[in-house]
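>> Question from a student workshop board

For tomorrow's exercise we were told to take the sequence and the ligand below, predict the bound structure, and bring the output to class. My setup keeps failing. Could a helper post the expected result so I can at least see what it should look like? The ligand is iron/sulfur cluster.
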Amino acid sequence: MAEIGEPAYRARQILAWAYERRARDFAAMTDLPAALRAALEARLDVRTGTEVARSTAPGGTVKLLLRWFDGLTTESVMIPAPGAERRRTICVSTQVGCDVGCRFCASGIGGSLRNLSVGEVLEQTLAAADLLAERGERLSHVVFMGMGEPLANYDVTVEAVRRMSADWGLGIGQRRITVSTVGLPKQIDRLAEEGLRATLALSLHAPNDELRAQLIPWAEGISLAALLPACRRYLDKTGREVTLEYCLLAGVNDLREHAAELARTARDLRAHVNLLMYNPVEGLPYERPSRNRAIGFLKDLRAAGARAHLRESRGLEADAACGQLRRRSASA
Ligand code: SF4
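>> Workshop helper replied:
Here is what the output should look like for this input. Compare the format with yours to find the bug.
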């Protein structure tokens, strides 16, 4: 606004139109002078996404496929907490596809085509908020755990966290925002210096370097000896607990010795372990462990002194594995 000689309060007005009133173009911003609306339209390109597919699971989980201005698509998933709990979480993507190439993941197939913009990440959040508003509910949490490696799109991730939490933005407290990463030590150190209060979630998925390198090709050059101290520094600097995400793959990383190794790491880091049940992906050789096996793994972790939870997967029916809806839609 300063650049075009307008008073600063106009910026607030525009932000309120974008975030509170969900205007999708400048023409809708009727309390701005017509000349200003025309000037903005001439200077700026408004690129809104379009919902092209939606799948809903019985528990209320909704997966959205959004198409961007260039025809590329990404997935976002709105996950309600079970029962009367009011937590409503959106899982956002940060890239179209992903270069990390985790062997068990559909999103990694084909690599990353491009980074999403801050606006595109925010728009996923707004789409979830709108969907919830139709049901009389409110979005409460955001997790950066969709398609892509958030710290490989670092500036966008940090700016998106700031705007989500800004009072003029979505007003979601930073403590309710989780940034996940497969583990890039330099970026974790940078993130610790941003002055944010977001939770860091490390996608560990294996308790030692050897198995990790098999499951996560990117991890081959990043040892746990480099990664875990960076997580520790994040905890020390921000006071925010690091969580360890661990996706259980039957017969691969769910053995008792794996639980013992993982518990040691969690204790050292004072981290909480989130166990996830794998959602099988067609064409990939991994399977979901039995519920008994998962509970046995959880018990072993706790017996070894680690804090851990088993996150129930809601919505196997809804193309639940990351990247499934996108793949299915692409081949339809
Ligand atoms: S699990 Fe996440 S980091 Fe790994 S390939 Fe899939 S989207 Fe990328």
